[in-house]
């Protein structure tokens, strides 16, 4: 089913941005002498954080450059490369187990990343970035992922339209000037597995370095039928001169994944049906292609100032088909379903020019970020299939094959385009008043245009066509008591544009969020880091409906405390621990006022420990680790008509490393959901409750040379 976009100017716009992004690189390369280039000293001597640690001392997401976390006036958590390796992180759901206050939101039948952050968020809310660029991709962790940074609270100062709970930035592996290659593979107790190649190194003495990552996965789905497969190829190239560094990266992925709405609610609880039995058909799956391209040119103007030009483009085209639950007879278990489906083409294009540097004024240092960006987020839904409800399926005795694939096109719902285009100027100043006090101040002025169109022929409707401006301030203060303790506080704002009412065409003001936050950060004995934060967030102009009439009058709130601890607690022991208490409330809504927000747990906690075994060196390096995550009960909908029970899931691993077959040979066994807990991580409504994965064993092996 081909999916076409009605945007004839898009390719020309895309290649114009690409040409602009590469102009500095082209001019520098053209001017370079023909003699062999000497490798730049910064490429060889640049320090890299210890990739074998659970703790991170710096992060780039809050300031668009590597800044010590202790000096940021916001809460920042990092899932490091070692955590990803030890716990075999396969998805963002896996990664968020190690970050406080994160729960799963509606994932569109398990096909998309979606998270509630400090009470706010959903799938496709724009809060997931790839290397600092908003992602339009359904799944964002892959073999290219090096680490994941989470910035809590409103992040609109640097990234524009976002929910006030925070954002997730997936950082990719980069080309390196030290040659190494790795071949690895995994097999799963569910059946199937994957193979991966990762190779990097310099290209002679040319100043170029390359990286190539390729992966093939084919794995059986954990429920009674279905497979999850993908093929990924990701080449990247860097060039470094004396003052200029250019990086080009591309990722291509083809995938097929089951569409699974999970289970249904009967009498306030998940149905007592067979846990691994799907309520779909075998044709219910999402198949597509995702692509990602980034180009960065960094020029060191002088020892104090760096200029960076960034271009990013990502695109996903996929077909989606499901047997959508339509109605349930709670007495008999009879479930009527519809053959629904759709074709999608979503993309983001981004261009930014940043100036990052330090200046001294009256003897006080200013760490400055000055920037301008332009962004286009274009989401298009082509042919949309909506079939009639068909009975004959029972959740207690499922018989498949009674519902055909989607075939009835809805002209009213087909060809929907939802486009948000914006241009912004922003500034951030970390003003070092003295050795202890840092005043953080900034603002973003953003102009945006929003266009929403839907339907074909006589059914064509332009539901939104508006433009507006928004100013988003940020103010924070950091007090560094000493090298081990810092206190901070901040005030910030966020915004998310609202679409117009489909029926009346009335335009609504954007959702506006404001946040207050106080916190403390510890860096103890250069081995363990800890942080605690208190926050209070309100969001208004939430669109609510009363007697069929919509208005932007709603208000919701979230407040709570978060604690994160990571690092080495003893010579051979490492720890990851989190706790979050989040109190959410619908503050202004005719029907749901006073209720809790959907999928937002009040209490979440986790604790993971890893031990390096003291064995003779000839036996190799042995590590064992494990821990558990607790998620409290959550509202299944904003009406609080049902609740999802709390659950605790335990994971464990054992690994062995030696130089048996190369520089590093590694064998590892991971157990996920060790005690085979049945649990329900999120809700999309009483007929769409996600079921958590059962126990799985994964055996992995890798050789690095």
Structure in a nutshell:
The protein is mainly beta and 705 residues long.
Explain the overall architecture.
The structure is a single chain. This protein is mainly beta. About 5% of the residues lie in helices and about 55% in strands. The longest helix is centred in the N-terminal third of the chain and has 22 residues, at about 10-30.
Secondary-structure topology with pairs:
Blueprint lengths: L9 H22 L9 H5 L12 E2 L7 E2 L7 E4 L1 H6 L5 H4 L6 E3 L10 E3 L10 E3 L2 E2 L10 E8 L3 H4 L6 E7 L7 E9 L3 E11 L5 E13 L6 E14 L3 E15 L6 E2 L2 E2 L14 E18 L2 E24 L5 E28 L2 E23 L3 E5 L21 E17 L4 E18 L6 E20 L4 E12 L14 E14 L3 E19 L2 E22 L2 E16 L14 E10 L8 E11 L2 E2 L7 E2 L2 E12 L5 E9 L23 E9 L1
Parallel strand pairs: 6-9
Antiparallel strand pairs: 1-2, 3-8, 4-5, 6-7, 8-9, 10-11, 10-36, 11-12, 12-13, 13-14, 14-17, 15-16, 17-18, 18-19, 19-20, 19-21, 20-22, 22-23, 23-24, 24-25, 25-26, 26-27, 27-28, 28-29, 29-30, 30-31, 31-34, 32-33, 34-35, 35-36
